[in-house]
Amino acid sequence: MWIFASIVVLICMVPCFLRCIRGDAMNRLVALEAASTMAAILLMLLAEGFGRIPFFDIALTLAFLAFGGGLVFARLLERWL
Amino acid sequence: MTIQMVAIWLLLGIGLLAFLFTAVGLLASNDVYVQIQFLSPGAVVGAVAICAAVLVKEGFSQGGMKAIAIAVLLLLANPVLSHATARAARIRRKGQWPPTAAEAIPMADDAQPSRSAGEHP
């Protein structure tokens, strides 16, 4: 069940990758934010699916770092790129 | 199938549908502001529903608490990121964040025609 859900989330990340390949810088940033959210949930689902509950920390860390990274990217794209 | 399993499947289905909605929206729209709108279903409904499914499975144990933390973090981060992205997109397009002169909304006092002092009762 959890592995099936993680496969579906992985499929949902494909449009984000496509948008990161095609599109201008802002489209790519939005796709990156969507993909980072999905990646955090994907890691949590995989940890649950494989019964490795301590690995939830990886998803938590990714969610926290993706927030900071998104802010920094947005600030950079305002004027400097 | 127990009630717990039904609840988990239901929450997982809601979350996955929200993520699918976000993914399709990202592909369907080219405007960055529309894409930012499509971020919210995945980050809010999707993340919270899937974390709730994990919480139903794990209960209020270590895993459940971490799922709550992930849900709260994603729930709080999404509006901030959306605002920062929209702000960056506007500054890239317009060159500034405040309204330009062409976008300025006239104030109520400015919109009314000026009256001479004799017209007042």
Radius of gyration of chain B: 23 Å
* Percentage of residues in DSSP E strands of chain A: under 5%
Count every beta strand of chain A, where a strand is a DSSP E run of 2 or more residues. Answer: 0
Largest interface: A-B, 45 and 47 residues
Rg of chain A (CA only): 14 Å
Amount of helix of chain A: over 70%
Terminal CA distance of chain A? 43 Å
**Mean pLDDT of chain A, as a whole number?**
89
N- and C-termini, Cα separation of chain B? 79 Å
Average pLDDT metric of chain B: 84
Number of strands of chain B: 0
Helix/strand-derived category of chain A reads: mainly alpha
The rough form of chain B would be described as: elongated
Largest sheet of chain A: none
**Number of helical stretches of at least 4 residues of chain A:** 3
Looking at how many chains there are and whether they match, the oligomeric state comes to: heterodimer
Largest sheet of chain B: none
